[in-house]
Write a structure and sequence with these properties.
The structure is a single chain. This protein has nine helices and five strands; from the N terminus they run αββαβααββααααα. By secondary structure, the chain is of the alpha/beta class. The chain has two domains: about 160 residues, Nucleotidyltransferase, domain 5; about 45 residues, no CATH class. The chain has a five-stranded mixed beta sheet with strand order 3-2-1-4-5.
C-alpha cells in the first residue's frame, strides 16, 4: 500500500540529473475544510541532506499533531528556502476552492528566497508559474520535499486555526481546525456561521439558513 512507503528523493534526483539545482516541493492543506484559509507551503531541501529526523517524515495526514510539531523546527532549520501562502475564506467564496488552491501554492512559491528552479507538486500544477513543474500523484507520500511542505503547511494552518478559537468562541476550532467533523457541524447548527466560515460550502449555506447570519459577527 502507498501509505506504507517512505518519502524519498527519487523525483528530486530526476530533476537534478536534468540540470535543476533548487527544487521545491509544494503542497496544500485545508482544501476540504469548512472554515479558515486554504494554505500551501513550498520547501527546498539541500541536495545532500542527511539527518536522523528525515526517517520520520511522512505525509502530514499520516502523522500525529505531536509528530508534525516535532518535525517543523528541523525542517525549517535545514531547508534552503521555505515559502508559505494562503487564501482566506472570503476569497475562496469569490473565486472557488480550486482556483484558491492554485493561488495559495503560487504565493508560497513566490515567497521562496532563494527562488526555486523547478517544482514538484502534490497532484496539481500551478498555471500561474512559469517554472518547470511536475504534478506527482501521491506526492506527499512519495516525495520528501513535498512531504516536508505538507508538514509546514499543516502546522502553520493548525496554529492559525487554534488562534481563531479565542476569536470565535464556541466553534471549537482548536479541536477540529475547521474541518467538517460532527462536532463542528453541531456548532454550526447551533451558532450559525462566523466570518471565517466558507459561505460557498453547502454545510455552511445550510447552517446560515437555520442559525445566526454571518452579518451578526460584523
Amino acid at each position: 500500500m502507498v501509505e506504507s512507503l517512505v518519502p524519498s528523493f527519487l523525483e528530486e534526483n530526476r530533476l537534478r540529473r536534468q540540470g535543476y539545482g533548487l527544487i521545491a516541493g509544494v503542497d496544500e492543506v485545508g482544501r476540504g475544510a469548512l472554515a479558515g484559509p486554504v494554505m500551501a507551503a513550498a520547501v527546498i531541501l539541500p541536495p545532500k541532506i542527511k539527518a536522523p529526523w528525515l526517517r520520520k517524515v511522512r505525509d502530514s495526514k499520516l502523522l500525529s499533531p505531536e509528530q508534525r510539531e516535532s518535525l517543523f523546527r528541523p525542517i525549517t532549520e535545514a531547508a534552503v528556502s521555505i515559502g508559505v501562502g494562503s487564501v482566506d475564506s472570503w476569497t475562496i467564496g469569490a473565486i472557488g476552492i480550486a482556483r484558491a488552491t492554485q493561488v495559495a501554492m503560487s504565493h508560497a512559491v513566490t515567497q521562496l528566497s532563494p527562488p526555486a528552479e523547478a517544482l514538484l507538486i502534490d497532484r496539481f500544477l500551478i498555471p500561474d508559474s512559469r517554472l518547470p513543474q511536475k504534478g506527482v500523484v501521491d506526492g506527499d507520500t512519495l516525495c520528501l520535499s513535498i512531504a516536508c511542505a505538507s508538514i509546514i503547511a499543516k502546522v502553520t494552518r493548525d496554529r492559525l486555526m487554534t488562534g481563531f478559537d479565542s476569536s470565535y468562541p464556541g466553534y471549537l476550532f482548536r479541536r477540529h481546525k475547521g474541518y467538517g467533523t460532527s462536532e463542528h457541524l453541531k456548532c454550526l447548527q447551533r451558532l450559525g456561521p462566523c466570518p471565517i466560515h466558507r459561505t460557498s460550502f453547502q454545510p455552511v449555506i445550510d447552517a446560515s439558513k437555520r442559525g445566526q447570519d454571518v452579518s451578526g459577527w460584523m
